[in-house]
Amino acid sequence: MMRLPKFTYLQPKTVADAVKMIADAGKDGMFVAGGTDVYPNMKRRQWTPGTVIGLARVREMRGIRASATSITLGANATLTEVNAHREVRRLYPAVARAAGVISTPILRNMGTIGGNLLIDTRCNYWSQNYEWRKAIHFCLKKDGDTCWVAPSSPRCWAVSSSDSAPLMTAIGARVKLVSRNGERMIPAGALYKDDGIDYLAKRPDELLTEIELPPVNAWRATYWKLCRRGSFDFPVLGVAACVHLDGDRVKDAKIVLGGVGSHPWETDAGKALVGSTLDDESIKRCAEAAHGVGKPLDNTDFNMMWRREMVRAYVTYALRELREKGAAVPVAFKPGHTV
């Protein structure tokens, strides 16, 4: 049985208390919300914080606030709450769908939307127990000096494993970060860096408190996830597509890939759709462009070359769904829903 290391556990009741506690703890402190990622990583000794700050009692971070045209998600809203919320499903069904394909029902009852946005990067050589990692002399992400995915590389290639991050990036959601020095709102996409170790642009003393979804205004979005099983698994490929329409023509479009790099990959593939009516030819051009930049490595499930081919396929499926507004698709491909 894997056991947690010893740590001091603190339970703030306000955001102000929480950011004071993390500032006092310094590098030895860590926030935990649902704990579905933090605690397993602590048991595997991937993280060994001396102070863990539990956020479950911080009321300010709970709940989902809806206005006539937009919604703000408290970072402590569970994935189940996001998936089931009536106004999220009505105005942002793609967001509800992305939350609903994460892990399992039991873990979605515990895991939070803020936690999924900040979830650690993963890798075949990193996501193992301590003894396994010790047997290979650890890896560059922690305790070692070699990235076993690319041994000659000076950087870590652990892969982004969030389902919500690509979609939030594609639709232009914003997140609020709070510290003792104040607060700031940044685009969701600006939350990430292309580095398997230092993967967040958020400072360690900052707390993500809420996610602001953009007003619904002539745009549609969807999220498609590739994984081996129908539940539980992390994505080995995620495709978030968002198109802004002017009549029946595409005014702007974003294609964001998850599971193929250390951060949600904002591609330029959407440019191939601008001015089109989401016809077959423009969808094909967009899918080819995304395939050209989506270059997964051998650091997670499935053959990496097949995963790269699936970039082309899944971008095509996502865009056809946006065009056809819910046309039938194979169950195995786990489609998202349009906004």
Question: What does this entry look like structurally?
Answer:
The chain is an alpha+beta fold and 339 residues long. It folds into 3 domains: 8-55, Uridine Diphospho-n-acetylenolpyruvylglucosamine Reductase, domain 2 (2-Layer Sandwich), CATH 3.30.43.10; 64-118 and 159-212, Uridine Diphospho-n-acetylenolpyruvylglucosamine Reductase, domain 3; 219-333, Enolase-like, domain 1 (2-Layer Sandwich). The protein is built from 11 helices and 12 strands. The protein has helices spanning 15-25, 38-43, 79-84, 86-91, 93-100, 105-110, 113-117, 130-135, 164-171, 280-293, 304-324; strands at residues 8-10, 29-32, 51-54, 64-66, 71-74, 174-179, 182-187, 207-212, 219-226, 237-246, 249-258, 265-266. A 5-stranded antiparallel beta sheet has the order 4-5-8-6-7. Strands 9-10-11-12 form a 4-stranded antiparallel beta sheet, sandwiched between helices. It has a 3-stranded parallel beta sheet with strand order 1-3-2, covered by helices on one side. It is globular, with a radius of gyration of 20 Å. The N and C termini lie far apart (44 Å).
Throw out a few tags for this protein.
339 residues, Uridine Diphospho-n-acetylenolpyruvylglucosamine Reductase, domain 3, single chain, four-stranded antiparallel β-sheet, 11 helices, alpha+beta, Enolase-like, domain 1, 3 domains
Give a quick rundown of the structure:
The chain is α+β, with helices and mostly antiparallel strands. The chain has three domains: 8-55, Uridine Diphospho-n-acetylenolpyruvylglucosamine Reductase, domain 2, CATH 3.30.43; 64-118 and 159-212, 2-Layer Sandwich (Uridine Diphospho-n-acetylenolpyruvylglucosamine Reductase, domain 3), CATH 3.30.465; 219-333, CO dehydrogenase flavoprotein, C-terminal domain (Enolase-like, domain 1), CATH 3.30.390.50.
